[in-house]
Amino acid sequence: MIAAVVLILASWGVLVLLGIARLLGRRPTALQWVRWIARIAIVGAIIGGGLATWAMTSFMDGMAHFDSGIPPEHRALLDSAFWGVIVVGAVLGLLAASRVREPSARRSR
After folding, report:
1. Which residues contact 9 (CB under 8 A, 6 or more apart)?
2. CB 38 within 8 A of CB 11
3. Taking burial as the number of CB atoms within 10 A of a residue's CB, which of 31, 44, 87, 90 is the most buried?
4. Is 18 exposed, middle or buried (0-12, 13-18, 19+ CB in 10 A)?
């Protein structure tokens, strides 16, 4: 669990660093290995964002039913939502990662 959180935060950090480099006029995706890392970070960041939302929803539902416990129908919905987040996040992440390309000469000016 802790390793997953560290990987998600690291992917968000990599994307922030790439964004800062781009704002400073650098072309971080000009290198093949940086593009490869950026694609992995994008997938991790999107899945991580979905899982963070799911975890907060699960926590808030648990707090709303603190004394009685989470009702079975809520637990079933949360379990289904977890797998939905994984599948949809992976698809969206892969679609977004496929857009990472080498910068063209026209766009880099």
Report:
1. 48
2. no
3. 44
4. buried
Query: pLDDT tens across 57-84, in order?
Result: 888 888 887 778 888 888 888 888 888 8
- Cα–Cα dist 34/54, whole Å: 30
Contact 46, 98 (CB under 8 A): no
Q: How far apart are CA 92 and CA 83, in angstroms?
A: 14
Contacts of residue 85, Cβ cutoff 8 Å, sequence gap at least 6:
47, 50, 51, 53, 54
3-class SS of residue 9: helix
Query: What's the angle, vertex CA 69, arms to CA 66 and CA 72, rounded to 5?
Result: 145
Q: Report the predicted TM-score, pTM, of the whole model to 2 decimal places.
A: 0.73
Counting runs of H as helices and runs of E as strands, what totals does the chain give?
3, 0
